Amino acid sequence: MEKFFKLNERGTTVRTEIVAGITTFMAMAYILMVNAGMFADLGTVSYGAVYIATAISAVIGTVLIGLLANLPLAQASGMGLNAFFVYTVCFAFGLSYANALVCVLVDGLVFVLLTVTGLRKMIFKAIPECVKVAISAGIGLFIAFIGMQNVGLVVDDGATLVNLHSFNLLAGSVTWPEIMPIIVTILAVFAIGAMGHRKVKGAVLWGMLGGAAAYYILGFITVPDFYATSVASNLSSDFFGAFRDFGTMAFGKVITEGFDFSAYISAHGMSDFIIMFVTTMLAFCMVDMFDTMGTLYGACATGNLLTEEGEVPNIDKAMLADAVATCCGAVCGTSTVTTFVESASGVAEGGRTGLASLSTAAMFFIAMFLAPVAQLIPTCATAAALIYVGVLMMGNVKGINWDDPTSAVVGFLTMAIMPLTYNISYGIAFGLISYVFIKTFTGKIKDINVGTWIITILFALMFFLTR
Predict the structure, then answer these.
(1) Is 84 exposed, middle or buried (CB count within 10 Å of its CB: 0-12, 13-18, 19+)?
(2) Smallest Cα–Cα separation from 378: which of 223, 238, 182?
(3) CA dihedral 447, 449, 454, 456 (to 10 degrees)
(4) Comparing C-alpha atoms, which of 112, 80, 129 is closest to residue 341?
(5) What is the tens place of the pLDDT at every residue in 200-220?
(6) Global pTM?
(7) Cα–Cα distance between 109 and 417 in angstroms, integer?
(8) What is the pLDDT of residues 167-181, one digit of tens each?
């Protein structure tokens, strides 16, 4: 173990690594419930099936990055990318669950190719810095918006498209059972924020569990027939039901059903399909790449793991692990697998080697058998996690130069378009198109490299040739 992980060389011990791995798991375990709940909205795949798919892909990705790159990081289905999968690719574009998995599989294969050939760096440089930092912030807004909608905090009033849910019990327009979950969500977000400030490990998970407990306590005490309407159906899930659903609803669907795009082509035409598929895959790949690279640098910097040149050690192997895990995730039936920023919590706890990753993977493996229990987590609790993750992702806005209109306009459009159109790829497209136009009309066309032109033209074609 010492020879493989180089524990002494990195100044750590087996006990420290195991504790760090468990800490990382506690910080990111919420993804199991949140991802499963999000995919269940599709109606074609169950909560349990995606819960198992998420756990298995997390185990595979985390083991790979630990063994290949010897880094104390963990991987799972990425927040933002899962929302893009469900609410944009499936609901907005009209692809089936299996069809969307093909986009994820191609994303992973392209990511492997880019990493092996070194083209990854060229594409990374083709995206303007103001767009890169705004993508994460825009996804944060999008995720938070989804959380608010899921719990009913934000509603469509038919006039302004969005409005705040009424809390006026005295007027009789709403009932306590309607607003009780919303209040629990709000309080859970406040609690997570307070725990985050106090550096509590696993604040998001504890906030979710606390929110779930508050929901059930208030429900049993104050809501008539609460057990029959809100609890009984979840308790009826048998222990092996999640594994059975995984085998029949999720695993291998990308192979057996995913490549049949006849329904979409007959409805929209072949040219529409080609542009849609290319830009969708590109959006998956770009977000995955920026998210992974940013997390690798951030987490490694936290633990002073960067090389003397300021690079992530074994970065190509880490990126390869991410790409392979994404392919495995597609086969299992979940969205793009990426390195989690919550890994920094384990690094802060002393994790320095891949042994911490193996510890995290072991925890995900154990959690795989707790699907019936996890299914009891109510929507109001997962919504709190979505909102708080949105808060964390908004931190990147400080990287935008708001004093420079050429940067501010591009960054703002990238962020604003995502939640307002319910589409991540539209935000990226507006960011790139606005960047090209502003640079051209300010006499700085030479700042635009060839890669930027190609990617921008593809996204522009998406607007004119699709939908």
Answers:
(1) buried
(2) 182
(3) -30
(4) 80
(5) 877 888 898 899 999 999 999
(6) 0.79
(7) 28
(8) 988 877 789 999 999
pLDDT digits (tens, 9 = 90+) for 89-130: 999 889 999 999 999 999 999 888 888 887 776 776 777 888
Is the four-CA dihedral 97, 100, 102, 106 of positive or negative sign? negative
pLDDT digits (tens, 9 = 90+) for 11-29: 889 988 998 899 889 888 8
In this structure, the strands spanning 163-164 and 75-77 are: unpaired
Task: For residue 421, give both structure tokens.
Answer: 């159109």
| Per-residue model confidence as pLDDT tens digits over 391-435 | 887 877 888 899 998 899 999 999 999 888 877 778 888 999 999
User: What is the identity of the amino acid at 266?
Assistant: S
User: Which residue type does 124 have?
Assistant: F
Structure tokens of 375? Answer: 């299914």
pLDDT at 291 over 90: no
Total length of the chain: 467
Angle at 321 between CA 77 and CA 50, to 5 degrees: 25
- Name residue, tokens 């993508």: 135
